[in-house]
Model the fold of this input.
Amino acid sequence: MACDTIPHMNIDLILVSLIEGITEFLPISSTAHLIIFSKLFGIDLADSYIKFYLLFIQLGALVAGVMLFSKRLLTDRHTCANICISFLPSAAIGFVLYKSFKKLLEGNMVLLASMLILGALVFMYLEKVWVKKEGVKNNLRDTLTKKDAFIVGVAQAVAIIPGVSRSGATIIAGMFRGIKKAVIIEYTFLLAIPTLGVAVLYDAYKSREIFSSISGYGELGIGFLVAAISGYFTLSIVKKYLPNISLTAFGWYRILLAILVLFWYI
Done:
């Protein structure tokens, strides 16, 4: 899709925005969903406008997180300090490895499916085995130490591999560190705000030349709003039911998604 022939309204891109808003904060890999549905809809991910569009709708999902968690970020100094600690290793590792990993791994659907399945199996182990161990279940913590925050940040950097899921990696790391599931899930949402914010702004800066070739911003605006609204409602629902969220359910979903990937694209 060339930049000078961008339609004023593309329903496929609006659907992609909806998918972005729903999946961005869930441990099911928003990147995997965007790749899968872009291929399904025939959207050219190599196109410069499409790349910018996907960045822009991520910003919409980010706004949803800010709306729901800004008060916590502004008032909880301990959590803010931990978020800074988590952000630094993931930002440093991501900055060094992102470009080379992206070229190496982009379009590798077998790897994507494998990471979806691996994450699913770890989720099931955590839910069915790990948290029920005698030495674990009675010692789960409500807060993260600085060491916990650092390890979670390193785990987040692994999400540069398609299919891993940023939130999935941080939840896994936090639970293996002995953090209660509801606590680490909420922390994952909070950590997403600076992580996504910096990543999107940095990528937008690198893609700044696209601005001169966009004739109208209506489609971008609609995509932004769809991602923001769907992200807000998804986060609201997940936040409300945090204590009862089953990682096993997410695991089975990831396995189903991986099977569909292998069936369609291999």
About this structure: Residues 83 and 191 are 6 Å apart (CA to CA). The chain has eleven helices and no strands. Residues 77-105 form the longest helix (29 residues).
